[in-house]
Structure formats: structure tokens, C-alpha cells
Amino acid sequence: MDRSSSYPYDDWSALVGGIIEIRKDSKSIAQGYVDAVMPDSSMLWISGDFIRSRSSYSKADGYEAWISPTHLQLVNGRTSSTRTESVPKRWS
Question: How many beta carbons lie within 10 A of that of residue 66, not counting itself?
């Protein structure tokens, strides 16, 4: 992700399906595909891959989601039903 063009995005519920960067205290913690978000935007999950397992991040713990304008446009082009389908059933 191009750090120079990305910016923090507070409405995490709109990020499902997007590629983001997680930061805390101005440091990059993780990057990846958002596969689920709590409806109140308090927590999100980044899908795992062959190196890392699926991870969750909470706003209450000081994490920020950063996204590039290009990735945000791609996410915003999807329907809202696509976003809510990815919320883990145990949280809905």
C-alpha cells in the first residue's frame, strides 16, 4: 500500500472487501483484506494467508485503519448487502 496516498478511515463498517493497512501509534502493524467488521465499526478482521492467521483489531486498543483512495472507491462500489454478509454470525 502506498503510504503517501493512504489516510485513516473511521467508518470501518464500510471497509469489508477492501485492502487496508492497520496502524497503531503511527507504526504499520499489518496489511490485508478486510473480511469482517462489527456493525458499530468497533472491530475488524483481516483475513489470513499462508503466513499469518486471521487477525482482529479493535479501535478501543488504539488501532487505525488506513486505506488508499483507489481501494476505497473499489469498496464503495459494492452493495451494502455484501458488507453485512461478512459479519461473523456469532456477532450478529
Answer: 17
Residue 84, CA distances (Å) to 41, 52, 73 in order: 12, 24, 18
Beta strand 7-8 with 43-46 is unpaired
CA 85 to chain centre: 15
Q: How do residues 12-63 score in pLDDT, each as one tens digit?
A: 999 999 999 999 999 999 999 999 999 999 999 999 878 889 999 999 999 9
The grid cell for 14 is 464500510
- Predicted model pTM: 0.74
In the chain, the number of structural domains is 1
Q: Which residue range(s) make up the domain with 51?
A: 7-79
36: number of Cβ within 10 Å: 19
Terminal CA-CA length for the chain: 31
C-alpha cell at 34: 478486510
